[in-house]
Amino acid sequence: MAHPLHDIAIVGAYHTRQARKLDVSEPALLLDAIRGSLASAGIEASEIDGVNVSSWVWRVNCREAVQWLGGHPCWTGNGSPGIEAVLEAASAIATGQAETVLIAAAQAGEYTDHSATVSWTRPSSEFVECWGLYTAAEFALIARRHMHLYGTPPEALAEVAAAIRSNGARNPEAVMVGREVTPEDVLASRMVADPFHLLDCCINSEGGAGIILTTRERARDLDCEPIFLLGGGTDRQGMSYTSAPIWDLHGRVGARAAGRAFEQAGLGPSDVDVAELYDPFSFEIIRQLEAFGFCKEGEGADFIGDGRIRMGGELPVATNGGLLSYSHAGLAQMLQKVSGAVRQLRGELPDELTVPDASVAIASNGGAGALFCDVLLLGKEPA
Amino acid sequence: MSGIPLPTPNPITRPHWEGCREGLLRVQRCSACGDFVFIPRVGCPRCLLETLEWVESVGRGTLYSYSVVHRPQRPEFEVPYVVAIVELDEGWHMLTNLVECEPEDVRVGMKVEVSYREMSDEITLPYFRPRP
């Protein structure tokens, strides 16, 4: 029997402008994401009967979004904007709760106190906060243990960062467009949280995104190129940023998500053409490639060598420049891994950032420091 | 490190922090299965029973992982500081800061011991330092 996910397609995918600081309000940015997603799918707002729309600062939520959309939607989702929301919406469509679901998110106006790290990197927790931890240090503790166990060198981390930042340098939509970076540049940049240099770390920016899901049958009638869901899964291992990120417990987070996704798709890692992986810090790419089965545990540093994850390589990663160079807009960054994969498969990126003949993409959200990792497989052709 | 955010104990976590104030590193242990549990919880994750008892750790262990942090979480933290995961001799892990050690001398696997610092009337934090 076919998997229910295989009856669902993504028919719209849109990114707003991204910038360190945008000149629009967060609600206006979110509305832009909604309008753009509808236009990308070629459908009217009145056809949306399910929504999962959210913003970070203004706390726009799904119930409010129902009214934004004229009261047409009857289903609202609660999943975080990203793979979790996609799987939730797909389940709603598969069970007949909705036919066409809009997922959108935006973030602007959050980062104002630059003496501290961004708020979402340092949630209040009594066993974490007093030790000066924040996201970079959490992920660094995972990376350091891997380096200790397997001898993973800083140069491998730098190659990951440089490969992804090179993509962003060539993407006119990226916040860091024009900023070509070599591995040597990464190693020479100032240390943030050892082993992460500044250029191993993602940027902080503002922006939004949206996607629209519907049935394969409905997708056939639309004037757009649908991208099909092949498989997906989640791997949750606890509350983010409340206890120690212990490699032995959490180093392979995402393996269960990828295992489910590949099984549902009837595919394996060697079938994947492009990888829009969560890249908050360079090492997380090495870890995910191991956890998802692209290589064995401890072999990630070798795997990413010889240009394999660069454009033109066997498995280009974070082709729009990722969180390191394109944009990290609060929670919207999770959705942008999905919408980014759709836009890559649709050929909407500049030619030099388009993977030739790519038919299968993997997207991921979350990572080892955050104790969760979700995976989605998308295809140009249905499963 | 004055002015850093300090823990606000709740009924589940208070015995740990009161222990620190008395110079004791308290951790929960399940009286049914023997597992150590940290951070403090209401029940044992293995047995799903309220069988957790507070016991005293020896306060010694090895450095499991670390990061020398140069960009502080907040300006109140003096840089560089060493965030660390310590594996206690009983086998459980905790987050802490490694002190009394030059950042370039920090090594995974080094032997460490608890070193208390009184931060306020209520809160004493369990830092760790190298031991011979």
Describe what this molecule looks like in 3D:
The complex is a heterodimer of chains A (about 375) and B (about 130). Chain A has about 375 residues and is of the alpha/beta class. In chain A, about 35% of the residues lie in helices and about 15% in strands. Chain A has helices at about 25-40, 60-70, 85-95, 135-150, 155-170, 185-190, 215-220, 245-250, 255-265, 280-290, 300-305, 320-325, 330-345; strands at about 10-15, 50-55, 75, 100-105, 190-195, 195, 205-215, 225-235, 275, 360-365, 375-380. In chain A, the strands form two sheets. A nine-stranded mixed beta sheet of chain A has the order 3-2-4-7-1-8-11-10-9, with helices on both faces. A two-stranded antiparallel ribbon of chain A has the order 5-6. In chain A, β2 (about 50-55), α2 (about 60-70) and β3 form a beta-alpha-beta unit. In chain A, about 60% of the residues are buried. Chain B is mainly beta. Chain B has one domain (about 15-130). Chain B has one helix at about 15-20; strands spanning about 25-30, 35, 50-55, 60-70, 80-90, 95-100, 110-120, 125-130. Chain B is globular and about 45 Å long. Chain B starts with 13 loop residues before the first helix and ends with a strand.
Task: Give keywords.
heterodimer; A: 383 residues; alpha/beta; Peroxisomal Thiolase, Chain A, domain 1; 2 domains; 9-stranded mixed sheet; two-stranded antiparallel ribbon; 13 helices; 11 strands; B: 132 residues; mainly beta; 5-stranded antiparallel sheet; 3-stranded antiparallel sheet; 1 helix; 8 strands; globular
Strand content of chain B: 35-45%
Identify the CATH class of the largest domain in chain A. Alpha Beta
Biggest chain pair contact, residues each?
A: A-B, 35 and 35 residues
CA-CA gap between termini of chain A: 12 Å
Order of strands in the sheet with most strands of chain B: 6-5-4-7-8
Total DSSP helices of chain A: 13
Taken together, the total number of domains of chain A comes to 2
CATH topology of the largest domain in chain A: Peroxisomal Thiolase, Chain A, domain 1
CATH architecture of the largest domain in chain A: 3-Layer(aba) Sandwich
- Record the strand order, biggest sheet of chain A: 3-2-4-7-1-8-11-10-9
